[in-house]
Amino acid sequence: MSEQAVEEESGRIPISQRPEWADVRPVPQDDGPNPVVPIAYTDDFSETMDYFRAVYLADERSTRALQLTKEAISLNSGITLHHRRWVAEKLGTHVATQELEFTREIFSQDAKNYHAWSHRQWVLQALGGWEDELAYCDELLEDDIFNNSAWNQAMRDSEVAYAIKAILTKPENESPWRYLRGLYKNDVKSLGNDPRVGSVCLDVLMDKRDYVHALNMVLDLLCHHYQPSNELKNAIDALSPDPTPSDSDLIQRVCSILQLVDPIRANYWEWRKTTVPAQD
To answer: Where is this region: Disordered (predicted)?
Structure first.
């Protein structure tokens, strides 16, 4: 069967015939004038990669570029997975569900695909979506109890829950706070993308006791462009001795509260005020 017949049977429309790609000029692969061993790529692969080079060189990070990487990956082009991650990061958190579904499609064919698991972990850390992850791991383990990748993912999720339970029991104990950070390899941005982290900080702050470590966590999150909920902002304001705080910047306000409730390190919190970025 010819390649054209295969395309017709699969329903695939060549990229060059799709209206949304009419403005893009594909960039052919340059193997030089005398390639030693020219590779006989399929027409599908050559066309897809020619368009991929075009969007890559144009620094395009769009929805259509994201879809193009999916097609390239389906043709076994590993380099495009890194580019897909780059595009998804630009598009933001609203594509998290789409990216998690993308890995599910791969796992339906190969549940232990290392590259797909790596991409899924990046999505969860950078874009969010942890809420249903443990249930999904359970689903995979029901299909294959020996799936080590699913076991590793499930164990981390349960360890986060364990750390949060310990924090709520004794919020003044610094150890579970450090353990929680360690589960994310001290990647504060990834830490902030797990909604459970913001939630446990809110719970501790609303209790209005033993909240130094919770405020410290919030401070670190804010310094990495974490967007707090209104509830969290209100909880911070409620801890200020001044009903009308003079610090308009939330980061500065957190540091001021820490200076009062943690006087031993008052100079440190004053120093933090001078080193942290201002809130937008």
So the answer is: 1-35
